[in-house]
TrEMBL record:
Listed InterPro entries: His_PPase_superfam
Protein name per the record: Phosphohistidine phosphatase SixA
Gene3D superfamilies, per database record: Phosphoglycerate mutase-like
Lineage: unclassified sequences, metagenomes, ecological metagenomes
Species in which this protein is naturally found: marine sediment metagenome
Length: 106
């Protein structure tokens, strides 16, 4: 998203997951950006993708993918949370959610 906290978080995940392309910074993930361009780009993506961004953008993007409407809540996001969406054919499903509270309990 271009924000320092998001870049730091992306670097931590990249260190742990070692993605083949590393971390790629993209525009369009700012809190108030339109989610449609990112949703459209994800539809054409065949590889796993991890996005690191901010609320309310991430919640609106998940809603857009899962329900087709960015304004219809599909996931209860919390700051510092992780939501995994999985595409099944033309549909997106919430695969799992990890909140900071859950991570601390592990």
């Amino acid at each position: 998203s271009g924000k320092a906290r998001a870049e730091q978080t992306a670097a931590l995940f990249a260190y742990a997951l070692s993605p083949p392309d590393g971390v790629v910074s993209v525009s369009g993930l700012a809190p108030k950006d339109d989610v449609v361009p990112v949703a459209n780009a994800l539809v054409g993506e065949s590889r796993p993708v991890m996005l690191v961004g901010h609320l309310p953008f991430m919640a609106r993007l998940a809603s857009c993918l899962v329900t087709g409407d960015a304004e219809r809540p599909a996931v209860r996001f919390v700051n510092g949370g992780v939501v995994c969406l999985e595409r099944k054919d033309a549909y997106w499903l919430v695969s799992w959610i990890l909140t900071p509270e859950m991570a601390r309990a592990v």
